[in-house]
Specification:
Number of helices: 25
Structural class: alpha/beta
CATH topology of the largest domain: TIM Barrel
GO molecular function: hydrolase activity, acting on carbon-nitrogen (but not peptide) bonds
Organism: Polyporus arcularius HHB13444
Shape: globular
Keywords: Hydrolase
Largest sheet: 9 strands, mixed
Number of domains: 3
Number of strands: 35
Radius of gyration: 32 Å
Protein name: Composite domain of metallo-dependent hydrolase
CATH architecture of the largest domain: Alpha-Beta Barrel
CATH class of the largest domain: Alpha Beta
Pfam families: Amidohydro_1
Amino acid sequence: MHNDIHTKLPLYTGDTGYQARPRLSRGLRIVLASALSLAAFQYLRLHSDLLSAPESVQVPLRAPEWLDKCHLLNAKPGPPPDFKTRTQSDRFAPGTKPTLITNATIWTGGVNGLEVLHGDILLDGGIIKRVGVIESDVLEHYSHLTRIDAKGKWASPGIVDLHSHLGVDSVPELQGGDDTNSLKGPVLPWLRALDALNTRDDAYKLSISGGVTTAVVLPGSANAIGGQAIVIKLRPTVDRAPTGMLLESPYERNGSVYDPRAFFRYRQMKHACGENPDGVYSMTRMDTAWSFRQAYEHARKIKEAQDDFCAKVTRGDWGGLGDYPEDLQWEALVDVLRGRVKVHTHCYETVDIDDLVRITNEFKFSIAAFHHAHETYLVPETLKSAYGHPPAVALFATQARYKREAFRGSEFAPRILAENDLQVVMKSDHPVLNSRYLVYEAQQAHYYGLPHNLALASVTSTPAKVMGMDHRIGYVKEGYDADLVLWDSHPLALGATPQQIWIDGIPQIDTPHLLSKPAAFQRRPHTPNFDKEKEETLKYDGLPPLEPKPSHSRTVVFTNVKSVYLRDEQSIREAFAAESDDALGAGVVVALDGRLQCVGSASSACASSVRGSDDVEYIDLQGGSIAPGLISAGSSLGLSEIDQEPSTQDGYVADALSESVPSLAGGSGALIRAADGLIFGTRDALLAYHSGVTAGIVAPQTGGFLAGLNSAFSTGARHKLEDGAIVQEAGAVHVAVHPVGSPSVSTQIAALRQLLLGKTAGDVKVWFERVKAGEVPLVIAAASADIIATLITLKAEAEAKLKTSLKFTIIGGAEAHILAKELGDANIGVILSPARPFPNSWEERRILPGPPLTEKSAVSTLLDHNVTVGLGIASEGWDARNARFVVAWAALDANGEISKADALALASVNLEKLLGIKTDSVQGDLVATSGGDLLEFSSKVVGVISPRRGVVDIM
């Protein structure tokens, strides 16, 4: 036997034969020299190892490959060593002109998110070259420089979404594009979101227009381990392919070509626990926890086998080893144990969080972030006991209670977690929430107490750090990617809209439509104090009491009132405006037994009318306001407590068009009444009441054509028999016309024509006689412009035959703007629900997105054509509490064309008119806010004057 074994390495000569060799460029010579040096190093290392090998051992031919793998076995991910000195981005698009943004107020993300600079930003080569004061000699090198004067407006890093399904969950939703979840088993770590990424999804442009530049695209949560996520820029490179959207490709080492010189990039992995995997695979939490442990035990055995293998080969012990132990299906999970993968875990409840924390300590891997995580704020110490480091927490701001494990979700969670030194991220779960408005999640978190620096960081630098990409995104710093947003107002101001967005230094909107905002919007919003509410949330384990508390005094006097808005029959007017900001110029409002008595200045007869009275409670509004209570419409509020728990709902009506309605219920002549199924005291209703939404209008829930009769109810009432609980038992008939496949749209229209012009029976006949007489509205849920056009012609046809004017209301109306003139001419009102349309389905794809993509919004376009417009809430009731912000945002997007009084009407008197509810100025509730009016981020609801219930509730 020989003491040394020599192996012949194949020499690559290319496939051009023995042709004359052209002169090599200097760059290519350097690359070849580096490659040869590396090969020589590997050969010498192998040769050295082999010299010490036992004489009887035959070294495998794949030994060089295995030694490379062993050499890099514990290498950690990160940027190349020279990354910070780069002069050009790896994503740079040739031909991109350098850009100089001058006179900007720059939130850099640095110094714990507290650093703000006033100066310039130079973008070149896809990176940020200079920030702040830029010397003139630097600019002299640029002959073709695009200059943009920010005029003092705010610039920030691009928005980073840590939880998105953009590109894998189709927008609009189509069966052929649903690639979010695999149903092939609870544990699937080998799947990759990259393999499903649609680069032509309609949502990219919308999300970019909201300032989103980077997103972690995750598989869904049907599986305990759903697969590998990807980090993408929303701008594709010139190849227009999924790989070109990757921020940094983590797959150079795991494909068919093995490159030992490639630097490791962090990979991302999706885990999920709780209701989702349990429900899909008919498991319990115990089963899911075992799935995790079983998978990680398998990965652990592979890891230990690799470690043992490499320990032997590095000392030259090749005897009886066999092949390097690896398994392509499990290599990603092995890399989790090696610290090379950022684990993102969909997890809500304390029990699930505790399960995963124990599993991390059992198998010694870290979790990057718990997502959704509605109960994390209740167990911060549990998070701190996770292996390696406490996970970050990725949250919604106010979306909660849509299923049992989200029931204890709190708007104060971001603040509480931050106070416990845990990283807070606000995320979208796009398209669950439209990621275009991700900054709105940060705004709400700030409103409820998250410090402003952490709120901005929660959608920029913090998610960048959590995903392991904070070396290049999430900050406005020299050397970072040129991903920027120039805002029209402070990013935390309500309705903040990008004026321009840059990704890799490339402007993303060709002709942005800009809004003119008041000067006050350039300052960080002053937000209310919620210390008491936060403490009560913790005291009551996430479920503080929300029932209204009536004043103990018959007379309640609101002082220091800045403005008062009152309702006429079908409009809102400003009844009082303070003469000055001081107390003497402010107003006084007196209420007796829940009814408004008078409004006047501090020196008026109204103020003196209660002087000397003993039974009086005074409330200082601190420059606040009195305004009509708002109304929720379009959601299931009032008929559902937990949307995904059937036992907490009224349920869905039987639809005579597609199924048999029981004869005992009235058969085809039945018309279901929402009033019969109302549920009072739900948390969503009470939270809405605390937020100034004092009434709800709800129709029976249907997945079909004929819904039934709506009902108006008080959101603050305890039960149906309480005074004022039912505002109006029935107001309008509701139907829906949607392309559901069976029955066809044309069949649904035929049914509607029959109801209007043919013979009917039972309650259907009674109420459609009133519709045909023009006494009550017919409310039609429709989104498509084609369907709406047919409804316009049907109305004209019916009116010609009935010789009377009908009241039609469209609810939904995503494409209604296309027919704004025709709707105005036909006297058909529109309730936009949701108020900010989104192309969720094919029938909603032609939305009018509004600024900065279009000059007009859907609201302003409809109003321009004399259409009566109401603003509704999407299907789930949790969003009803945000009606005041929805209305304010609509007014801001209208660029000054909608007054505050008219804005308040959009979610009050207009909804009543369009939905057949009759409430006069004496009956309507009034809402008192401190620190500002109902439409301002600075205000807080502190009371409700309720003549319906005969009380003044104090919040």
